[in-house]
Write a structure and sequence with these properties.
three-stranded antiparallel beta sheet, alpha+beta, Arc Repressor Mutant, subunit A, about 120 residues
Length: about 120
């Protein structure tokens, strides 16, 4: 599913919608992308042939990239990078205080035992 399917028509241009989609796909692979490489990738998308660095910076300043881009800045070697926000899984769980007796899954023996008790209670 493409990002432009969720964005209202008057909200962003098709090139910015393509940018959001590409950045969202790249986040699972890396945490930073060179701006010149990103511009070249976006220009290959239909409807984004005229994309440039200024459009990227404008989209970042206007907040269209808030969900996927952390920052746009130069590194130590004076190369401009887009730093992406990391993906956060909905299923991340803090297991530091995990108590297996109360909140964890039951062992198969306990599950079968409780099922047998319920079945025996229903027979009576």
């Amino acid at each position: 599913m493409r990002a432009r399917e969720f964005v209202t028509e008057g909200d962003v241009s098709p090139s910015v919608a393509n940018l959001i989609n590409l950045l969202d796909n790249l986040r699972s692979r890396t945490d930073q992308v060179r701006v010149d490489s990103l511009v070249n990738l976006i220009r290959k998308e239909p409807g984004s042939e005229m994309f440039n660095i200024d459009l990227l910076k404008d989209a970042f300043k206007e907040g269209h990239l808030d969900n996927v881009v952390e920052n746009i800045k130069k590194d130590e070697s004076d190369v401009l990078y887009v730093y992406l926000k990391p993906l956060v899984s909905d299923r991340e769980v803090d297991i530091t205080n995990f108590d297996s007796d109360t909140s964890g899954p039951k062992t198969p023996e306990r599950t079968v035992s409780s099922m047998a008790k319920r079945a025996a209670a229903k027979r009576l």
